[in-house]
Specification:
7% helix; binds MU-OXO-diiron; binds calcium ion; PhoX; 596 residues; PhoX family phosphatase; mainly beta; six-stranded mixed β-sheet
């Protein structure tokens, strides 16, 4: 590596950190360029109309880039990676920002159908020019998946009575995917996508059904009122439709006619993501976090082994790997005396928040390990199964990634302001702060480095927040030299093994969200630096750290309290008096590699 401006040496991180700011633009380090790759409403197909904010239609939206891009992946289409497939999730719609004069009590059918078409995923060919810029292209591989695209349920709970509806008495065919937050790229070149806060789309739950309340399905009317336009969103009429969301979905972006699947073997909860690694014997392991306060971290181990190669038949086999296996949940123990974990975030006397843990099995195929629950119930009501085995309640488990060189697993725990509140659990060693506004990043090392292990050790790499505050920790690094960070969400690695973290703090530190990089080994471990910040009201999502280009999704620019399409507070990216548009942004440095 080359020396950084402040004299430190870390391969791939030679850039001057971006200062905290509240600017309505994407701010990158000196010498770097940035440009929008694609915006909400941009056409993905030659027959799609140009975006017209004041004349939107559902038919147009179904052929255009969707709203609120979150996860993103770049899959190379040639060995040099000149052409790539950009796959993005469209997590949710923000109707007050999408439509002028929006009346939340009386949405129109057209507005609702635009929202259905703005959810889901986009697949888009992009080409990288010599200077690093990414340009979108029309391609036969381009695809939109929406809230009405057919999906097949697979795995042990497929066909279960709990998943059958009037429209689908087989319990295997679902229309659409909702609230796709983060995801993962599988080693076989497909995309996993987590259905996260699906509860918000369903109205009128049976109040006597505690299993629905456990998932936050509690309202007699939803915010978007979809239940008025399609009875499947009205649980009084279709009580099982909600059970068909909350899964990890898998999409083969190389086959635009393929039917995407929902893998029931990975359990049903508010999946942030799912990320796959290959164990030494060829079986695959997927980690997934349930992103809500006091929820859990899960691991799935496949029965079958991965088939090498990128042939269609290998991919077809590998797309069944997540259908048969064992689902477990994490139980953490700390090694410091309980009285030293006082909720303040101060380090215990051994100098580390750390300890051991175990993966507690919940179900394997048709066999349940949870007393009083069938295997089908474990898969469909996974949260209740994890409750019963005493899993450890975490501070909002977000993205999870395995380090490409060391095999150490990194999990972002976003925040949990309810920890320590009246009647709620207090501090634990992996979740050491009460009223936790800023979150932490956890390292988990499977025993012997074996992905199949049933036990692990763990420690906190970062306890986030203002580095000047005594309740923060940056792996013991000099806190006067690190960037402030709040609410870690997505994590990714560069080719050098540095960890990159996207934040979703909602300005908890009074500044815009950003993308940060931190070495996880060597003398510079803990030296966190801000690489970019995003515009007002936006969240940074879906980072992809390439050799020559970094991409991020800028989700919900301008989404702050009191703002709307009638009163926009952001005009990014188009400037002037334009409406803000969620977009993918590429960052590069002409003629140079990232961070070098
Ligand atoms: Fe959609 Fe967990 O962030
Ligand atoms: Ca300790
Ligand atoms: Ca997220
Ligand atoms: Ca988040």
């Amino acid at each position: 590596g080359t020396p950084t401006a402040d004299g430190a040496v870390t391969a791939g991180l030679d850039f001057t950190p971006v200062a905290p700011n509240t600017l309505d633009r994407v701010v990158v380090p000196e010498g770097y360029h940035q440009a929008v790759v694609i915006r909400w409403g941009d056409p993905l197909f030659p027959d799609a109309p140009a975006f017209d904010f004041d004349h939107q239609t559902a038919a147009a939206q179904a052929r255009q880039f969707g709203y609120n891009c979150d996860f993103a992946a770049l899959l190379p289409l040639d060995p040099a990676g000149r052409a790539q497939l950009l796959v993005t999730n469209h997590e949710y719609t923000g109707e007050p920002f999408m439509f002028r004069g929006y009346d939340p009590e009386h949405p129109t059918r057209e507005q609702v159908e635009i929202a259905w078409a703005a959810h889901g995923l986009s697949v888009l060919r992009v080409e990288q020019g010599r200077d690093g810029r990414l340009t979108p292209r029309f391609s036969p591989l381009n695809r939109r998946i929406t809230a009405t695209t057919p999906f097949r349920l697979t795995g042990p709970a497929a066909g279960s009575a709990l998943l059958r509806t009037t429209a689908d008495p087989t319990g295997t065919l679902v229309l659409g995917t909702l609230n796709n937050c983060a995801g993962g790229v599988t080693p076989w070149g497909t995309i996993l996508s987590g259905e996260e806060n699906f509860n918000q789309y369903f109205a009128n739950p049976d109040p006597a059904e505690p299993r629905l309340a456990r998932y936050g399905v509690t309202k007699t009317a939803t915010e978007r009122k979809w239940e008025r336009f399609d009875p499947r969103f009205d649980l009084a009429r279709e009580p099982h439709e909600v059970n068909r969301f909350g899964w990890v979905v898998e999409v083969d972006p190389h086959d635009p006619t393929s039917t995407p699947v929902k893998h029931t073997a990975l359990g049903r909860f508010k999946h942030e993501c799912a990320n796959v690694r290959i164990a030494r014997d060829g079986r695959v392991v997927a980690y997934s976090g349930d992103d809500e306060r006091f929820e859990y971290i899960y691991k799935f181990v496949s029965d079958k082994k991965v088939r090498q190669g990128s042939s269609r038949s290998a991919r077809r086999h590998n797309m069944t790997l997540l259908d048969e296996g064992t689902l477990s949940v994490a139980r953490f123990t700390g090694d410091s005396p309980a009285e030293e974990i006082d909720g303040s975030g101060r380090l215990p006397s051994d100098g580390r928040f750390d300890g051991r843990g175990e993966w507690v099995p919940l179900a394997s195929g048709g066999r349940s390990f949870v007393p009083g629950m069938t295997a089908e119930e474990v898969y469909v009501f996974t949260r209740l199964a994890a409750d019963r085995v005493g899993a450890t309640k975490m501070d909002r488990p977000e993205d999870i990634q395995t380090h490409p060189h060391t095999g150490v697993v990194y999990c972002a725990l976003s925040n949990n302001v309810d920890r320590g509140k009246e009647g709620r659990e207090g501090a634990t060693e992996p979740n050491p702060r009460v009223g936790n506004k800023h979150g932490q990043v956890l390292e988990l090392t499977e025993r012997g480095g074996d992905a199949l292990s049933s036990t692990f050790s763990w420690d906190l790499l970062l306890v986030c927040g203002d580095p000047a505050s005594p309740d923060t920790y940056f792996a013991g690094y000099d806190k006067s030299r690190v960037s402030p960070i709040s609410s870690p969400d997505n994590v990714a690695f560069d080719r050098h093994g540095n960890l990159w973290i996207a934040s979703d703090s909602g300005a908890a530190l009074g500044a815009n969200d950003g993308l940060y990089a931190v070495p996880v080994s060597g003398r510079e471990r803990g030296h966190l630096k801000a690489f970019l910040t995003v515009p007002v009201g936006a969240e940074t999502c879906g980072p992809v750290i390439g050799e020559r280009v970094v991409t991020v999704c800028v989700q919900h620019p301008g989404e702050v309290d009191g703002a709307s399409a009638d009163n926009p507070v952001s005009h990014w990216p188009d400037g002037g008096d334009s409406q803000p548009r969620p977009s993918v942004v590429a960052v590069w440095r002409p003629g140079r590699r990232i961070g070098e």
